[in-house]
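WARN retry 2 of 3 for item q-0093 after timeout on previous attempt; input resubmitted unchanged.
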Amino acid sequence: MEAALCLGLFPVFLDLLQGQDAILLLFIVAGTFNRLHAGKDIAAGVILASGLFKFHLVLPIAIMLWLAGRSRLLAGFLPGAATLIALSCAVSGPSVLFTYPKYLLDLNRATGVGVVTAQSMPNLRGLLTAVLGRAPYPGPIHWLLLPIAVVAIVLTARFWRPIINTGFPGLALGYCLSLLVAIVTSYYVYSYDMTLLIIPLLLLSGPFLAQPSLSRVERRMIAAGVLIFAMVFTRYDGWIIGAAVWLVIAVALFKSDTAVRNKLMPSFAVFTAITVAGPLLWFWYNAKFQGDWLDFLRGPYSAAAIDKKTSPPGSQHYRGWHSPVSSLLIYMRTAQVVASAWETGFAVTAAALAGAWLLWKQRAHRAALLLWVLFKNVYPVPDFPNNLWPYVALAWVAASWGLMKLRPALVGAM
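OK item q-0093 returned
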């Protein structure tokens, strides 16, 4: 079941398509967690050190484990790192210790050339680059990243230290947080590196988190409402995703025990009010400033108006007009094209549907199904076969932009 779900995650497919090594790193990080759970910290350190081919992701994890109280990990990590350095020198010569850092530095001085495209990175560096624009090296972005990364690492270790040795839940929670911190604050990270998020996705949907304290549930519910409110103002896709999140929480609440339901009902009412406030505020904005509360649906920039302006006289309606079956087929084909290259979208769709069905059949934590959203970056519009153009092409662009903007809020809301 887990394998089928993992194949439905876009970073996994992208890693396989491009021949990257993120899946190997995922195996190493998962093996490290397994040994930590077994109390074999030295073995965990050796395994983690073997992932230093992505040192910018592995080193923060090792530091957080050390600061959180698992210092015996260093007894395996440091010799493992030294062995890898010695092997690198034996293969490439001792000069590699100086030429490789210089190579990385030169890449940063030529931002946007080769593989270094900061604006495409799904981390804090990519966000700052999108907001502040490209900066010379070193620039304000680089001076901001270091202190933020240090503070995040220290705070994570401080949170993790009291619970790291309390059993599986404490170890797993801190480990998932350390992976997220390492990715978000890293200097280099690309879409295929999001493969590491498989570990938090699987662990955080497990039964050990099924019974959190009610006060924590109340806080999370309110936070989810705030994030759904924010999603509504990104794209209209956020309305659909927000409604799905609300529905899952509502079903889970009304299937819970009477005492739990009565305790959480006031917070659920606030959560519902915040969720509904987004669309209502958008309706008010359209009525106030556009003169029509449904301006986005029937105004001059609505889909219907654009279709009317751009369609040649006497042209037929597009395929799927008033036909739910045809619309569903076009939508599914669009999802396949967005998810992967060529005709491999059929395999990705089949794997994702199979994993979702198995998860539902085994009555696992079904809210986790909403987390299996395809992470997508924006690429130039490809050439489509005649039977797909222009329906899929336009939807492909819209879906790419929409998923790119919605993914942080979606993960946060869940």
